[in-house]
Amino acid sequence: MIIEISHFLSILATGLFFLVGYFSIFTPSSNSNYLSSLITRTYSQGFFFLFFSFLIYVWLAITDNFNVAYIANHSNTALPTFYKITSIWSAHEGSMFLWIVFLSLWGFIFNIRVNNNEILKPKSMGIISFILVGFLVFLLATSNPFVTILPIPPLNGADINPVLQDPALAIHPPTLYLGYVGFVIPFACAIAFLLHGDSEINWEALVKKWSVSAWVFLTIGITLGSWWAYYELGWGGYWFWDPVENVALMPWLAATAFIHSLGVSIKSSQLRIWTILLSILVFSLSLFGAFIVRSGIIDSVHSFANDPDRGLYLLGFIGLIVFTSVFLFVWRLSSIKSSSVIKKFSKQSFISINNILFGTLIFSVMLGVTYPLIYEFLFDQKISVGAPFYNAIFIPVVVLASIFLFFSVDSKWSRSINFEFFTAPIFLSAALSLALTFFVMQFFNTQSISILASIFAGSLIIFRYIYEIINFLFKKKYVNPFSVIAHMSLGLLLVSISFNSLLSTERALSIDINSMEEYKDLKIFFEDIGVENNSNYDSIQASFLVEDQNGRAFNLKPEKRRYFTRGQITTETAIHVTALRDIYITIGDQLDDGSWVVNVQINYLIRWIWFSALLMGFAGIILVFSKRVKA
Amino acid sequence: MNPIRKRRVYSILFVLLFSVSGISLILYSLNSNLDYFFTPTELKDRNIPSEKRIKVGGMVLSGSVERASSTISFTITDYENSVKVVYEGIVPDLFKEDSGVVVLGILRNKTIYAEEVLAKHDENYMPPNIEMNNDN
C-alpha cells in the first residue's frame, strides 16, 4: 500500500508540474499577479508531493521492503542503514529518481527565494516544470523504481555492489547530480529571457549566484569521484579520461566559461549572446552526460543500464530541448542588444579569448567521447581514444589560457593596456616562475616541455596572485576573493599535476613472506598474510612494514575481499599519506613459488591536486555567500 | 565594397581560417593518438605495424595463465584464433581464465607487450564481437 502511495504521489507531482508548465508558458498574460502566485504555489505543491514520494522511498529502503523490485535487487538486510539509503542511487532507476528530485529541489529553492515580481520568474518556473515532466515521464515509463515483486518478496535481497559500499561514493553521486541539474536555473532563465524577447531584462544578474552554486557542486562532485576511483577502485591515479569522467568534465568546462562570460555580461553588457549560448550548452552537456551514462552506448565503469529504449527516449528528449532552445535563440538573436565592440587587450578581450579556448577543450573532449562511436559506425572498426590525445590538446591550451589569465589580472575593463601596463608585478612573477622552472629542469633533470610549461604557467598565476594578496594586506587594495582563490587554485592544480606526472612511479614486485624488497627509497618488508572473516565478506589481508629513507616506518595492510552475495572480488588499497606523497600498495595474486605480487606506487602531490580542486569549489562558496554580489 | 563591409569580410575570413586550422590540428592529434581495437582473428588477418599501440579483446584461454616473478603471460582467444600477451604488473580483480579481457599494448613478434590489462567491472561483461561467437 505504502509503495503505491509513493508511486501515486510522484504521478500526481508530474501532473502538477505539467499544469505549471502549461499555464506559465502558454497563457498570454503570465505576468498577472494572480497567475504568477498560482504558478508559485502549484510548483511548491508539486515539489512537496515529489519530495514526500522520495522520502517514502527512502523509508522503504531503510525498512527493507523487498516488495519493491529495485530495492530487493540492490539492497540487503545485512547492510548498515547508511548503505541501505545510498543503495537507492547505486543503480539506474534510483539514481534517476534522485536526479529528478534534485532538479525539482533547485526549482523549489529558486521558487521561494526569487520574488514573484521578478519578470522572468513565471516562465522560468514553467520551463523547469516542463523539463521535470519530461524526466518524470521517462522515469515512470521506462525505468520505474516502484515496480513490485508480488506476491512473495525475496527474503534477504541481493546486494549493493561492494565497490559502492563506501562513504565517498555515498556523497559523490548526489553532489555531482546537484551540480548537473543546478544548471537548469540559468538555462530556464535564459530561455525565459528569450521568450520575453525584451533585451532590457537583466537575466544575467539574476542567475549569477545560482550558476556559481551549481558550479561548486559540480567541482566538488568531480573531485570526490576522482578521489574515490583512486582509493576504492584501485585505479591509482586522479584522472583516467574514462567516458564518464569526460561527460562530467564537459559541463564543468562549459560552466566555467559560462560564469566568466556571465561576469562580462553583467559588468558591461557585452558577450550577451555568448552567455545565452553557453547557458544552453552547459545544460545540454549535463543532459548529454545523463544520456551517455544511462544509455550504455559507451563502455565504462558507470554504465550499469544497457537499455536501448531508455537511450532512445533520453536522446529524443534532449534533442527536443536542445532544438527548441537553439531555435528560440536564433529567432531572437537580432533583438538581443549586446555592445559588440571589445577593446583590444581589455579584460573583456582576455576573457573572450579564454572562452574560445574553453570551447576548444569542450570540442576536443566531445570528439574524444563520440569519435569512437562514429568511427565504428562508418568503418566497422573499434577504436578508443586515450590519454595521449587529451594531453596533446589540454596541455598547450591550458598553458595558453593561463598566460592570458596572467595578463588579464592587470588589464582593465573596457580599456586597452599601454606601456605602463608592464610593471613590477608582471616582471617579478615572470622572473620568479622562470627561475622555478629552470630549477625544476636542473634539479629533476627533465626535458619534458609539457611538464616545464605547465609548471611555468601554474607558478605564473600563483606568484601574480600572491602579489595581489600582499597588496591587499598592506595597501588595502581591493581584491575579489572569489577570483583570487579560484585562480590560485588553478595555478596550484597545474603545478601539482605537473609534479605528480614528473615524479610519480609505480612498480609490481614479487615478495616472499618474511622477506624484504627495495623500491626507490623504500624498504618493504612483507610481515604476514592471513585470512579474515567478516559479516558479508572474506578477506585476505597482507601486512607490510615500510621504511623510507629517513628511517620512518609504518604499516600498510592491503586486502583482497570476496563478497558472499555476489561472489565479487575487490581490492582494498593501503595508502600511507604524507604531505608530499602517497605510498600506495595493492596486492595481487600468489605465484607458484609462494611469493605474492605486490604493486607499489609512489604518488607525489596527489593530495594537492584534490586540495586545489576543493579550494576552487570553496572560492565559489565565498562568492555565493558574499554580500557584495547581489542575488 | 564599402569599408565596413570589407572589414566584416576580413574578420569572417579570419575567424574561418582560425577555426579551420584549429579543428584540423585537433583532428590531426586525434588521428595520431587513436588506439585501434582488434580481436585475435582480425589481428591475424590484418597487417598491423609493430610498435603501434593497439587494443586487443577476447577471452582468457583456460590453462594459459603463467606467472613468473611479477610478470604474467596469458593467451587471448576468440575461439578461432589466439594471441599471446605478456604483462608486468597486477591484473585486475575480475581477471580470470575463461572470462573477458581487453589489453592495451604493442605487438612484437606475434606477442602483445601490454601496458594495461582491463577486465570490466561488470561480471557479465563480454568483449565486443565475442558475444556472437559464444551464442552459436
The total of beta strands of chain B comes to 7
Count of helix runs of chain A: 18
Overall body shape of chain B: elongated
Label the overall shape of chain A: flat
What value does the Rg of chain A take, in angstroms? 27 Å
Q: DSSP helix count of chain B? A: 3
CATH architecture of the largest domain in chain B: Beta Barrel
So what's the oligomer here?
heterodimer
Global mean pLDDT of chain B: 80
Number of domains as seen in the coordinates of chain B: 2
Largest sheet of chain B: 5 strands, mixed, barrel
Give a quick account of the main beta sheet of chain A: strands, pairing sense, barrel closure. Answer: 6 strands, antiparallel
> What ranges of chain A have pLDDT less than 50 throughout 5 or more consecutive residues?
301-305
Portion of residues in helices of chain A?
A: 55-70%
| Average pLDDT figure of chain A | 88
The gyration radius over C-alpha positions of chain B equals 23 Å
Short descriptors:
A: 631 residues, alpha+beta, six-stranded antiparallel beta sheet, four-stranded antiparallel beta sheet, 12% strand, B: 136 residues, OB fold (Dihydrolipoamide Acetyltransferase, E2P), 2 domains, five-stranded mixed beta barrel, 3 helices, disordered C terminus
